Amino acid sequence: MSAAIRRVQRLLTIREAQETEAAVALATRLEAVTRIEQQREQLESYQRETLAALIPTDAAMLRQLAQMREQVREALDQQELRLAAAQSQLEQARAIWSERHQASLSLEKLIERRRQQEWVHEARRQQLEQDLWATRRAFDQAHQD
Question: pLDDT, tens digit, for every residue of 20-51?
Fold first, then answer.
């Protein structure tokens, strides 16, 4: 392996480490979005089941129920904001990972092209050596006869 390929290989190792780091960040963001979505679903379930089941019997209970509904509605609004922010961060993490993944793929392709070029160069060199050896042998045989 040539020095140029070794240099690119070292760069590829660094890029792959960066890609792995970005993949971990992406997984973390995905977990956060999933967790926030589950919390939102729990709030919605609470709103549907608990608050719908309560039937106020007096004015104080009616006020308390209205207050609870307002609090759940506010919690849901906040959860939606958290979810939107988490999804935005997820998309940023996905873009970073994608960029780093493409960089790694590009370096892998570069290494493969360089290896192919070296192989072709080496094959041509060997063919030239064989041709020179055959020419010399034919020349030597012609002079011996």
Answer: 999 999 999 999 999 999 999 999 998 888 77
SS (H, E, C) 2-24: CHHHHHHHHHHHHHHHHHHHHHH
In whole angstroms, how far apart are CA 105 and each of 11, 16, 97, 123, 127? 12, 9, 12, 27, 33
Environment class of 119 (CB within 10 Å of its CB; exposed 0-12, middle 13-18, buried 19+): exposed
Predicted model pTM: 0.74
CA distance 116 to 119: 5
Helix 3-46 with 59-144: angle, nearest 10 deg: 160
Given a contact cutoff of 8 angstroms between Cβ atoms, the answer to whether 76 and 47 are in contact is yes
Q: Are 112 and 5 in contact (CB under 8 A)?
A: no
How many angstroms separate the CA atoms of 123 and 88, rounded? 52
Element at 50 (helix H, strand E)? none
User: What is the dotted CATH code of the domain comprising 3-111?
Assistant: 1.10.287.1700
